[in-house]
Each structure stands twice: as C-alpha cells, then as structure tokens.
User: What shape does this take?
Amino acid sequence: MRLFAKAQYKFLEQRRKAYVVSAVLIALGLLSIALHGGLNYGVDFTGGTLFQVRFEDDVEASDLRSALGAAGLTNLQVQNFGGASEFLIRMAEFLEGGDRELAQQVDRILDDRFGADSYTVVRTEAVGPRVGEELRQRAVGAVLIAFVLSLIYLGFRFEWRFGLAAIVATIHDIMIAFGVISILNIEISLPTVAAILTIIGYSLNDTIVIFDRIRENLKKHRRLKYVEILNVSINETLPRTVMTSGTTFAVLLALAVFGGAVIREFTVVLMVGVIIGTYSSIFVASPALLEVERRSGGMRSKTDRRKVAAARADV
Assistant: This one.
C-alpha cells in the first residue's frame, strides 16, 4: 500500500500507552467475567436440549421467549436462525434418551400460543452433562495443544527470546478475546472454540512476519540501535499487515452482516481476534521482545551486547 510504503512511525516510543490500553482491556474483561459468574457456556459444554423451530409466519423472538417463560421454562435462550421465522431454542434441561416429556411440553406451549399447524420442529438435539463436561475438557485441551505446538515451532524457527515475546503476546490476545466474549455475552460453543484457535494462529502468524523482518534487520543494520531496528522492521511490514488485516476484517464484517445468526457470533469473535492480533503484533510482541533483550544476558556477540546496552540507554 502506497500510504504506508515509506512509513517511519515510532511505534516503540508509544509502548507505555499501549501497556495502559492493554491493562484496561484485560481488567474490564476480568471484571465482566467475575460479574457474570464465569463465561457463558452453551449447551455443547453444560448439557441441555436444543430445538430448531420454523414458523409459517414471522414471529418475534420476544413472543416466543415470553410464551416459554410463562410456562416455567425460564433457563433458556432464544435466537433467530437465518430468518425472522426460524429460531434456535436452547434449554438447560436435559432431554433423556427415551423420555419425550420436555419435547411434548414445548409442543404444547407452541400449540397453545401459536397454533398446532403454525410451526415445524426441524430438529431436536440433547447433550448430557457428562458429554458436555467431556467436550469442555477437550476444547481446553485443543486450545492448549495448539498453543504448545505453535511455541515449539517458534522455538525451532527463532531464538528463545522471540518465542518468549510471542508467548506474552498470545496470552495477551487470549485474555482480551475471552474478556470481549464475556462483555458481549457471547456463548462459548464449539464454533467459538474454533474461533479462539483461529485467533491464536492469526496472531502468531502476524507476529512471526514482524519477527522475521527483525531478525533480518539485526544482521542488515548492525549500527542501528535495537529500538530503531524494531521500529524499522514494523514499518517495513506495515503495508502487508494493514492489507492482510483489512481484507480479512472486511470479509468477516460481510459475513457478520449478511451471514445470519448461525455464524454471527463466530465471525464477531474472529473480528475481535483480527483487531487484537494486529494490535498485539505491533504494540505487545515487539515491545515484549525489547524488554526480554534488555533483561537477558549472554548475548552471542559483542555487537548484540552493544545493542542491548543501547536499548537500555534508550528507555
């Protein structure tokens, strides 16, 4: 992009302001999680029953919710599913294998409120508490495995200092992502976990691109101070970062607007991840690398030691 072709922004000089922004976002997220009593786990992880109902005429979600609530089914969620006449109804109650009592109760409520011929139950799904707990454990395991494998790759690709900085940035992104999920009251479901895994990969990819350029510039610009090398590297990769993040965000925005309720929460989480990942690769990962370099000893060459000394003098 021509706008950033000759960028010379002093990103590292703004890192303390970025620290404040990150601290505020993380604090708000943790506060939201505490106030909500934890994250909002969906039927996939808590166990319960899901109904997909299609009405012949347009129906308001509030009318459907009030009808079910008036019958005593209060622990439920109702959301549009692709249109104004189709809904997903999630209940914490578990529909046992052979027992159709809950399904029959829902049918009676809908018959009384909307008429027996006004709707069709498209599907019914039930997840037992044990299965939900197992899915939750596997979801956490998937996130941790993806994280560890990414770090192993970084360990082979870069020095440990780069890997440590990438760990800091990735943990930062995950904490903010979960905080935003809590603030927006987005349900933690299997698609949400997939979005979190995608965020980890996207953030690390963005960070690796900048770290690759930093490693090249450490050999290329031996007389520059360490802070200057970091700024030069970020500015040189800025056109690629803006183009990649911008196009990705545009596609996700289109999906969020036109894709319907089925994938809206998934795309919203990804949009948050793109913004956070781009921000952290510039204002978290690179400053973290600077801090690690400043505080580490045993550099491999006198040139590196002089650069660390210069970095300390610059701060």
